[in-house]
Structure formats: structure tokens, C-alpha cells
Design goal:
Layout (H helix, E strand, L loop, with lengths): L7 H4 L4 H45 L2 H7 E10 L6 E5 H9 L9 E10 L2 E9 L3 E12 L2 E13 L6
Parallel strand pairs: 1-6
Antiparallel strand pairs: 1-2, 3-4, 4-5, 5-6
Helix pairs in contact: 2-3
């Protein structure tokens, strides 16, 4: 690389006043970003705890955790894959069906894809890989009396194509 053109050495010299301003602005920005993120972390943790009660409760058949995740008036809405019909199921009905699997561990993988929190309202997208199918869950949560509860669930079941042998 040729470095013998006029002004090369002065071009790369750093002006101390500019560097002080740049450093001050950068540090202020990083402080603000970390402060904002720190403010959300307790709420994020609480929302994730509620979602994990749902996911783990379903995976290990723990109906106590499942019940803890949902508000009593929550509902579950979906389109039935077989009939194409819209279904609106009270969460109490879902939890009653879950009791049939109490204590039975499911072979599935779960993931919280994202959460979005605004004050006392939150949304989350979850994925459940059940081996032969995926569930794509979308949860609406509210902070009620200091606790995050799922108040609405919609989902889509995606059946996987059979593996050719």
C-alpha cells in the first residue's frame, strides 16, 4: 500500500477534542441502551416464566404448571386441520383434556421464538416440535394482580411430511 501522498500522516492523526466528544457520546449511548434493557429484564423473565409453565407443564404432564400459566377465562382459538372449521375452546376444557396426560412425559422440543412486552400487555410466539408435527402458538398475556397470565392462545398445527424409508 502506497503511503507517500501529501497529507497521509496528518489524515490519520486523531484530534483529541473530537475523540473526547466521540467517546462521551458512545459511552452515553451504551449506558442508555443498557439501562433500557435492564428495565425490561424483570418483566421479560416473568413473562418467560409463565410461558415455560405452559411449555414444560405440557411436556412433562404437570397440570399444576399448566393451570398456573393460564387465566381462568382464557380461550384457545384455532382452525381444525381436518375439517377446516374455526374452533373456540375455553381454556378450562383444554386443561381438563390435559389432565388425561398428567404425569406422562411427551417427546417434544419447545422454543420461545420471541416475546414483545408493552406495559401490562405481552405477546409471544412459541414453537413445539412434536416429532410428526409442529405447533405454532401465539400467546397473548396480561399482567393481572402482579402476575403474568396467558389470556388468549391461537395456534396452527403443521403436520410434517412422512419420512421416506
Amino acid at each position: 500500500m502506497q503511503r507517500d501522498y501529501p497529507g497521509y500522516r496528518t489524515y490519520w492523526k486523531l484530534n483529541p477534542a473530537v475523540m473526547i466528544k466521540f467517546t462521551t457520546i458512545l459511552c452515553s449511548f451504551l449506558f442508555c441502551v443498557s439501562w433500557v434493557l435492564a428495565q425490561n429484564s424483570p418483566e421479560e423473565a416473568a413473562v418467560r416464566e409463565t410461558l415455560m409453565n405452559y411449555l414444560e407443564g405440557g411436556t412433562v404432564g404437570d397440570t399444576v404448571r399448566l393451570n398456573k400459566a393460564f387465566h381462568q377465562s382464557a380461550s384457545m382459538k384455532y382452525i381444525d386441520n381436518k375439517t377446516g372449521e374455526y374452533r373456540d375452546v375455553p381454556i378450562a376444557e383444554f386443561l381438563t383434556r390435559a389432565k388425561a396426560n398428567a404425569g406422562k412425559k411427551s417427546d417434544r422440543k419447545t422454543k420461545i421464538v420471541y416475546t414483545n412486552i408493552s406495559g401490562t400487555a405481552a405477546q409471544a410466539r412459541l414453537e413445539i416440535d412434536g416429532g410428526t408435527y409442529f405447533f405454532h402458538d401465539y400467546m397473548n398475556l396480561l399482567k393481572i394482580n402482579g402476575e403474568w397470565k396467558i389470556v388468549g392462545k391461537i395456534f396452527w398445527r403443521e403436520d410434517k411430511a412422512p419420512v421416506a424409508k
